[in-house]
Design brief:
homodimer; 129 residues; DNA-binding; mainly alpha
DNA sequence: CATAAAGTCTGTAACCGTTACAGAGTCAAG
DNA sequence: CTTGACTCTGTAACGGTTACAGACTTTATG
């Protein structure tokens, strides 16, 4: 199967598929006589895996590791857990950070009483150290 | 004042200061005979403004606009409000998105009962479309 | 069978906001 | 005069794509 069909089946953009192969996330593909990439079912599965993991915010490095763990069925799944936990932790940190930004922004924003730029409390607040 | 002192006073890295000037966020600087950039107080204030706005997650484009609004004291501060609101809105969206990722990750993660990779529910879940 | 249209290839650059580095020049203190 | 700290320019890297340009191949239509 060629890249267009792989793209339709996996949901990944064509350019992204080529990119994944280039950076070693996706297994190398065979090539047709004319140089076209040939995809097999396991490529589609990998692409779906990558897509879903990306949607969940995993980095390509994480995904690379998850895919390589997947190849070793006898290993304990502790490593998988740990990657997942670390990622979840990172997400929670980002949420906390964004929440504190939102609080600060609301505070600053609430101080505006709708006059002219000269008396704008928002700009004033942003200028403070 | 030279860039080192501007950096110390503003809290921005030297490289970042030069970058801000290059992309037109920071006002152009005068140059000494030997080509060194010369900073005045208003540059320091701009840099502090930029730094604080960046810490609050505003994009450089937003900041460019905020700084240009700041130069027009007679305008209504509605434009400032609207940039702030839009940014706050974006942050809330990102929070919601991250929260849904976190929920999904917890769900997936909870399904793991600690066996081998072969039966790993996390990897299985990630492989599903 | 010729041609047009769609698909694919490679290589390169753009996006954002920095940061880092190389190699050259400048300035102040000892 | 030399050493060290500072600054300059230009370029490339980071992550994760996406978007080209220009060449080639395959498929569909006349």
């Amino acid at each position: 199967m060629k890249i267009g069909e792989a793209s339709r089946l996996s949901g990944c953009h064509i350019e992204t598929i080529r990119y994944y192969e280039r950076v070693g996330i996706l297994s190398p593909t065979a090539r047709s006589e004319s140089g076209y990439r040939c995809y097999a079912d396991h490529h589609i599965q990998q692409l779906r895996f990558i897509l879903h993991a990306r949607e969940l915010g995993f980095s390509l490095d994480d995904i690379r590791e998850l895919l390589s763990l997947k190849e070793q069925p006898d290993l304990s799944c502790q490593a998988v857990d740990s990657i997942t936990e670390k990622h979840l932790h990172g997400i929670r940190n980002r949420i906390r950070h964004l929440e504190s930004l939102a609080r600060e922004l609301r505070r600053i924003s609430a101080s505006c009483s709708g006059g002219h730029i000269a008396e704008c409390r928002i700009l004033e607040a942003l200028g403070k150290p």
